[in-house]
DNA sequence: ATGAAAGCGCTAACAC
DNA sequence: GTGTTAGCGCTTTCAT
């Protein structure tokens, strides 16, 4: 279909148009909307609102931002918005922001720290009220230093920085209890009779995953089980990464494995795909457990045992801090809980 | 951890700071960055760039937008960003926009047309370069009229409007071949020996789904099979909606059903969940097919038969139009293709 | 090629 | 309570 009314491009109606139409000064018009500060006479206010409605006026938010010197935007940095964990996080954050009068702007970092750095500069230029870094951090000291410096500047100019699940940056943090959840999971699995584990650990550079591996190991240790280092397999922190890692595993390694724990659900599902590809049945031959309890799991059979992380609570906590919280508040850690499903039945 | 360097909030460095530091006028500094228009002496340019780097200057994008009178933002309206279809779309659009020098801003409409209306006004205030409406349209004539008027204003002020898979709005459209794909699917299933169908049609108000139902019906008709109206079940256009609809189905209805076709994969998966809950095995007792080929399917067993839609191509097409295309270009329709998987085996 | 000055749309002192 | 006047940070004529 053709565009209607194309051709004559018209200048958008501005506040001064409205003011003129209502027969008041621009400042009065402005005050009629923002309400706050000096109150404006009810009759005039109505005239202004009416004129605005008639002209279909809508305020230019960019201009408002420039004039006010601050925005109402939260920049949310995620690795990959097509990933179920991050898209749920974005959804929760948006819903929460909405009711706090804030907008969230999602930015994808593609799991590359250079890109992250680039993106943070951009965000600094947008003068977001806050920047939330979700997803794991990296162990690259040099780049992390630069990133930190960049984030410091955000704070210096009045912005807020909140990190989610990443221990590499010294800013306000909101976290899931990764170590605790993993520990409980390890203990639960040991209780179910599991002894021979293989851990898909993600990238050693990613901080949050370390906590999960360490916690899991601690949970096993609680049950008197030791997890050797060679049972901890690094891989890319993604479905594909886990799948590839499992495909590369030697037959002997898998033969000695009764349960695969992947540090997140996406990876666990990638592992399941690869295991099935190699002829293993889940859970008859090999059991699998993950972490996060992503929405995808509702469609997966057998149900994947995992550790549930309260994403909505996290979003509420993060947005709450940004909206009302005091800037340097100490970090908070949200409780996680083990969810046992059919992918890890009791043995014998 | 405490915030570092908190306390002394400092004014962000501006272009005039850079200009002063470089000993040039603000206009020269500006030109040193934007490069275009009048060229600036190479030596001076270097001085400016150096000063900027030293001061850690980053341009205020809001101010740029106000001064230039246009932004570089594409507003993408989706029903629900946690939905696999929309999050994939967002990811594809962002990737595509990136390489075209544009940003995409995702906005969630929650499948409510009033909210959609509200959101479009907001976007109009942000002076986005384009607004892309993904997700199905509604048959509410009154609100659609208002929405259309709002979108007309976007165009009048130089913005671009592109709709994806919704026939209710007379703007530039980019679509998947919904009818064609569904028709092929119907024909393929008939060829596999299926005769007794049940269609989960989503909401009758949603336009795109109608095409899928109609196409499916046409495909069956090609094979001499008639699909009665009472075999087409409306439901909310979501996983939960389909699940609930299937749960409410009478035993007799299901007894007369050999295959359930849902107009998208999310719904198909919701149906699978409900069917299993009622004791049906998939596909031994009832087969299921969906539409979209969302990423989630890689983890679903048995594999779900569906119609693949080329999301990356769609994103490229949409962004291409916005970046280089002529405004009133005719709509385009992208080919879809049937993907037969284990959820619909050949009968006997 | 560079600088001075006007203006983008809006808010916020500051006077009246 | 209302209008006048400066800005906000940047781009872009218009002179030079």
TrEMBL record, chains A, B:
Domain spans labelled HTH lacI-type: 13-68
Keyword annotations: DNA-binding, Transcription, Transcription regulation
PROSITE patterns, per the entry: HTH_LACI_2 (PS50932)
InterPro entries linked to this entry: HTH_LacI, LacI/GalR-like_sensor, Lambda_DNA-bd_dom_sf, Peripla_BP_I
CDD domains hit by this protein: HTH_LacI (cd01392), PBP1_LacI_sugar_binding-like (cd06267)
SUPFAM superfamilies: lambda repressor-like DNA-binding domains (SSF47413), Periplasmic binding protein-like I (SSF53822)
Coiled-coil regions listed: none
Tree of life domain: Bacteria
GO MF terms, alphabetically ordered: DNA binding
Alphabetical list of PANTHER family matching this protein: LACI-RELATED TRANSCRIPTIONAL REPRESSOR, LACTOSE OPERON REPRESSOR
Record protein name field: LacI family DNA-binding transcriptional regulator
């Amino acid at each position: 279909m053709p565009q209607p009314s194309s051709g004559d491009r018209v200048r958008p109606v501005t506040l001064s148009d409205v003011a003129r139409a209502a027969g008041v000064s621009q400042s009065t018009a402005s005050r009629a909307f923002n309400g706050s500060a000096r109150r404006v006479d009810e009759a005039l206010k109505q005239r202004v609102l009416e004129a605005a409605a008639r002209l279909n006026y809508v305020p230019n938010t960019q201009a408002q931002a420039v004039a006010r010197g601050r925005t109402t935007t939260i920049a949310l940095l995620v690795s990959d918005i097509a990933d179920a964990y991050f898209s749920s996080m974005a959804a929760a954050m948006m819903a929460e922001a909405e009711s706090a009068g804030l907008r969230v702007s999602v930015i994808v970092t593609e799991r590359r720290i250079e890109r992250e750095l680039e993106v943070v500069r951009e965000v600094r230029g947008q003068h977001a009220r806050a920047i939330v870094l979700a997803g794991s951090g990296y162990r690259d000291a040099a780049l992390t230093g630069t990133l930190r410096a960049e984030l410091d500047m955000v704070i210096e100019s009045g912005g807020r920085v909140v990190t989610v699940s990443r221990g590499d940056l010294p800013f306000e943090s909101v976290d899931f209890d990764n170590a605790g959840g993993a520990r409980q999971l390890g203990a639960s699995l040991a209780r179910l009779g599991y002894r021979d584990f293989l851990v898909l650990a993600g990238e050693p550079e990613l901080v949050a995953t370390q906590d999960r591996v360490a916690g899991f190991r601690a949970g096993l240790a609680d049950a008197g089980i030791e997890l050797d280092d060679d049972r901890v397999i690094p891989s890319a922190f993604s479905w594909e990464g886990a799948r590839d890692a499992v495909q590369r595993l030697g037959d002997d390694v898998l033969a000695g494995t009764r349960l695969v724990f992947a540090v997140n659900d996406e990876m666990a599902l990638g592992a399941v795909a690869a295991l099935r590809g190699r002829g293993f049945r889940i859970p008859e031959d090999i059991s699998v457990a993950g972490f996060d309890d992503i929405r995808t799991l509702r469609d997966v059979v057998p149900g994947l045992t995992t550790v549930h992380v309260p994403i909505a609570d996290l979003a509420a906590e993060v947005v709450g801090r940004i909206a009302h919280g005091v800037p340097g508040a100490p970090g908070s850690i949200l409780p996680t809980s083990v969810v046992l499903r059919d992918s890890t039945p009791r043995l014998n």
